[in-house]
Queue: 2 jobs
Job 1
Amino acid sequence: MNAAELLKFRSVSKRFRLQSGTVDALNNVDMTVSAGEFVALSGPSGSGKTTLLMLAALLDRPSAGNIVFDGRETSSLSEIERSALRARSIGMIFQNYYLLPRRTVLQNVLFRFRYLPNPPQEPRATALQALDMVGLRGFADRPAGLLSGGEMQRVAIARAIAVGPKLLAADEPTGNLDADAARAVMECLARLKALGTAILLVTHNDALLCYAQRCLRCHHGTLEDRG
Ligand SMILES: Nc1ncnc2c1ncn2[C@@H]1O[C@H](COP(=O)(O)OP(=O)(O)OP(=O)(O)O)[C@@H](O)[C@H]1O
Ligand SMILES: [Mg+2]
């Protein structure tokens, strides 16, 4: 694997088993994301985007094929090794934020360190730095549940990036936001990319594709590179 390659899918397939039969969500997908690259992934509903993102974030395992992350063949890792790699190197954000609404913004970000084998020496300062990145340092002591949708998503980004991940996987992070809030979120992602984090962004919104260096399109479980 080339040193600049952070994530590589080799003939990756994912088959889900249901009582009524099987669903082939991804078929022989090849994909490379370089270190620090911003890649957008679009495609119709049901085409396999979330499935691909969950595999990229090591939250699920492929049915066939190999996924190499940061030079490590992930299929040979134990569940504990995969969790440690994920906690250290991968941030994930979702359309629905998944914050703890009664906890403060700062507590939500600090929560990210719970899963780390080596938490930062100064967790509070590190979390505040992440909140600075998304322009929400002044919101640290507010309950997360009282923020606007756009602000919640930026807290979710701060939580994801507080560990300094090599990859941020984002599944329609602007899906619930209006145009201005979506732009604020995208600008956070662009700043993060400028600091060297690779971003894999699923979006239905073609207006946001301009933030990415490369656009991939999912179609019936296959992937097309649209340049
Ligand atoms: N856990 C699961 N069990 C069974 N089938 C699943 C599971 N997860 C996804 N699928 C199926 O796999 C296919 C791809 O789903 P996926 O969620 O990846 O699509 P998507 O491109 O993210 O769609 P959307 O844009 O609606 O979010 C769909 O047909 C879906 O029904
Ligand atoms: Mg999806």
Job 2
Amino acid sequence: MTKFLPLRTSRIALFPLLALAACSNEPTHADLPYGTVQQMMVNEVQPTAEIYWGAVKFESRLEPDGSVVEEEFEPKTEEEWTEVADAAHKLQDFAAELQTEGYANDRGEDWLVFADGLAKAAKQAEDAALAKDPDAVFEEGGTVYNVCSACHQMYPPAQLETAAGDAQVS
Ligand code: HEC
């Protein structure tokens, strides 16, 4: 009888360990489908936002004769408009992801407010693209940018100079 004892104790000891692992608040890999917040921002959120921000833009050009030419760029083809709408849709997905336990864990209440703000702004941005309204796309792009900045002000990125759209402000 005695010789089975070590086996039994180890089996009993296993249960509390498993329970502990299940209750742990430590985000596991599965909770962070896009990696850390930093990785998600750099690899997903920023490039997607840039597609949207780049869709409608104004450029001033100085001609050789000294005159200034204003040029407006906007999506032309169905595919281009779809790409802009898709980008705004993806931003809503990222916003929803930021509100999940894995990404919101250990953040303040305001984290959820900022993430929800992004979801709403990105929805408006998508609607503007679906309506193929360049002015609205430009305006909603600004609103999206403001939401990015608001969250970064409360949760400053390690390298602020590389952060979202800082170049747009200056
Ligand atoms: C809910 C909060 C929140 C929102 C909304 C948000 N971010 Fe971030 N972002 C962060 C945090 C937190 C960091 C810092 C991550 C770190 O350094 O650990 C960050 C960092 C970044 C960085 C810098 C990453 C680096 O270190 O180089 C970029 C770029 C970025 N965000 C882009 C955006 C864009 C674009 C948007 C809007 C479309 C946006 N973010 C919206 C929280 C947010």
